[in-house]
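User: Hi! I'm a student and our assignment asks us to look at how structure tokens line up with a sequence. Could you show me two examples?

Assistant: Happy to help. In each example below, the sequence comes first and the structure tokens follow. Example one:
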Amino acid sequence: MSSYFYSMILVFILPFALSAFFSVFWFALSRINPSRFKETYKRSLVSTIFIFLYLFYPIISSTAFEGLNCIEIEDKKYLKVDLSVECWSKEHTPIALFLCIPAVLIYTIGVPLFVFVFLSKNKKRLEDKEIIIKFG
């Protein structure tokens, strides 16, 4: 498997791993110092996850599209970011079908759709201090 695919997998997994780490971090803080963090645990966790969503959105989106971007060289198509990988070969097809296309659908389309639905449902509460603190 190409080293590019390993870096692609890392890019896709990193936001989830960081979110899991900070979930444990905020939970531990709420248990260690309940008087300070018990009420803010959920708000801090949601804020952290939203920061990661926004921070990694361009990276994951571009990486997902790069994994599908092929160019033709001498009647064969190769992955533009790694010309050692022939597009839709045994090596590329599983990565494209199970990583890149779901990333485009879930992350590139799903995240903005989720934010739009959330904002639409809460449009009357967007000025509330709690909403601003939690979602920015």
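Example two works the same way, sequence first and then tokens:
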Amino acid sequence: MKYKLLIFDWDGTLANTHPAVVGCMQQTANDLQLPVPEVEHISISYGLPLKDMICRLFPTAECEVFLKKFQQYCLNHDNRDCLFDDAAKTLQHLQKNNYLMAIATNKIRKELLYSLDHLDLHDCFCAIRCGDDGFVKPQPEVLHGILDELSIKPQNAVMIGDSKYDMLAAQNAKVDAIAVCYEPKQQQNYCNINRSFVSKVLVNYLTICDYLNKVIILQLDCWMMIFEE
């Protein structure tokens, strides 16, 4: 087994929180009488730490005021903890097949733990790194902390995420990466990563086990792609 440790991003990778984030972000902006950004404009900032995302989208806003109101809307949002189809089933399957699993997210720890409690997923993950733990993706220390905690070498781990910040974090930490892509336009984000690597793009969770069971790593120009034999 090439990979012993699977490091998952949370928002947009395991959890379909993007619709909730967009809705809460737009509602907060409207309440604070700020220009309400379009969905596409918000999507560009996915993967950034929340405060950085707010500063980029609302440069004239008082960040702490916006953050507090936004987080309150998120806590009250009915769909904030919706997993992607088959994600839970895949996590259970991987756990039964003795993979170690961890989460590396720029989400704050309080919100992630709330989600894990709500979804009863705590037992699936043996390590967690969040955006308020001191480092954020794409800083390699996010993944290095998980590797050190679990005594796993970089070559035996893979980062699974949906944003360029996940891919860059993997590159910086010298671990492989798998891109989870649910929309064609997401692939463009990966193409903009200069001299980086992106692994095989997965479009649903039922295929991930097949890719992890048997992979060949091929160097193709600036891309690293995973293919089935």
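Here is something you could point out in your write-up. Residues 18-31 form the longest helix (14 residues).
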